[in-house]
Amino acid sequence: MIRGYLGIDVGSVSTNLVVVDEEFQVIESLYLRTQGKPIEAIQKGLRELAKRLGDTEIMGVGTTGSGRQLAGVMVDADVVKNEITAHAVAASIAVPDVKTVLEIGGQDSKIIILREGVVVDFAMNTVCAAGTGSFLDQQAARLDVPIEDFGELALEATNPVRIAGRCTVFAESDMIHKQQMGHQVPDIVAGLCEAMVRNYLNNVGKGKEILAPVVFQGGVAANVGIKAAFSQALGVDVIVPPYFGVMGSIGAAVLAKEEVEHTGKKTSFAGFEISDATYEATSFECEDCPNRCEIVNIIKDGTVVARWGSRCGKHSTAQSHAS
Question: For residue 258, what are the domain limits?
């Protein structure tokens, strides 16, 4: 019997599930598109994992990401942690002496500064799309270049053009202008990669002490053009770990192992059978005070299992039945 620890990272773009063993080696990993349906994505992931894991026993489960509370309720997680903590823990497992973590996903980006294994500073960007994967997707589509080939094409550049990358609107208009001037596509693609890195370092990384080792993770880390642009801009060799796209899940799994070992309690994991349960999310506006809080109900098989959104705490406890 293999003892495993499950980590679930629910974001706006992807829902990732990872199972690690007691040595933090990845047993199974799944990358799924959330597509605005986190409940369905979680259940789909659990069904697929159940098929793959065989005789692996889940000893602990942790959740992270923007949908960590929802995921935590669904699976009865042992620990629910924010993305900064989860990504920092995973990076420290991959590169024990890591000092800087660059993380870029589809809709947001973040930087984490560690010293002696402890997070001492961080910053997030959830507003400007110019520093995220969606920016690259849009420009790749405009150039009619498959996003999978984007990074390799950037490495073919002989004279990268400078493109304004502070704003997606300016970047697009500047890129079109460079096309009309006759610049080669690889040079434009390389320019876009450099523009995205400048945007990231001037916004998310502004004022941060970026020291090596530098670990680059998140979905955009698959783009070798962005990795090369970071390495050039920082003057260091940027490290992309093997499971760069699911590092949040790995961190959540590691934190789950630490939690159950620290408390000495048996995992509260609800089991893979919850993939067959019927879940529903509803909401209502509380009118008891001027705050008019939007209260969210999570309903499992007709019973409210979680409720949040109340500033005063009045509706924080789930009622016995949905109404």
Answer: 2-89+247-275
